[in-house]
Amino acid sequence: MEFVGNDYKEISASGERASFCLDCYQNFGWLPDERTQETRGAIVLRRERKIVNKVELTRLQRHFEACMDEITALEKSKTTNAAAAALCVWVVGTAFMAGATFAAVHVPPLWIATIILAVPGFLGWIPPLFVYKKIVSRRSRVVAELIERKYDEIYEICTQGNKLLN
């Protein structure tokens, strides 16, 4: 039996993304290492150390990994701005409620000011959910197209890597 030196790599992926990553990494010469136990959300890969076109495959792999990071960032961007906007609306509502509370505990109580401040306060606590959903919905439509472009780029990268292996 001839000695074969291997490089090893551990990737963190779970669910549907794990299968996708595994398929893509195989185009850069990586194979799942059956001898290691699969830990929660991590897959161990190996490839021959003296693989042909290793430098170009590594460059393509890094480009693939950058695209995957961009997809992850795009997925997160769906909710980040929505959460910030909803939180701002909630804080404004809470500020009105604080004013209403101070007006209610004032000696003597300022009931008119309490009512005037409490109404927008309560109304400020209801819209954040709707604001969040609307912004996420709008952002999801924009992001879906960008993510689809990234997947097309990944498929092109994997095709190039596969050609280098064969």
Textual characterization of the structure:
70% of the residues lie in helices and 10% in strands. The chain has a three-stranded antiparallel beta sheet, with helices on one face. The protein is mainly α. The longest helix is centred in the middle third of the chain and has 52 residues, at 54-105. The mean pLDDT is 89. It folds into two domains: 1-51, no CATH class; 52-165, no CATH class. Helix 2 (54-105) runs antiparallel to helix 3 and helix 2 packs antiparallel against helix 4. The protein starts with 5 loop residues before the first strand and ends with a helix.
Give a topology summary:
Elements lengths: L5 E7 L3 H11 L4 E2 L9 E7 L5 H52 L5 H15 L1 H39 L1
Antiparallel strand pairs: 1-3, 2-3
Number of helical stretches of at least 4 residues: 4
Tell me the series of helices and strands, N- to C-terminal.
EHEEHHH
Give the strand tally: 3
> What's the number of structural domains?
2
Helix content: over 70%
Strand content: 5-15%
* Shape field: elongated
Instruction: Identify low-pLDDT runs.
Output: none
Strand count, sense and closure of the main sheet? 3 strands, antiparallel
For the biggest β-sheet, the strand order reads 1-3-2
- Please identify the oligomeric state: single chain
Q: Return the average pLDDT rounded to an integer.
A: 89
Distance between the termini: 24 Å
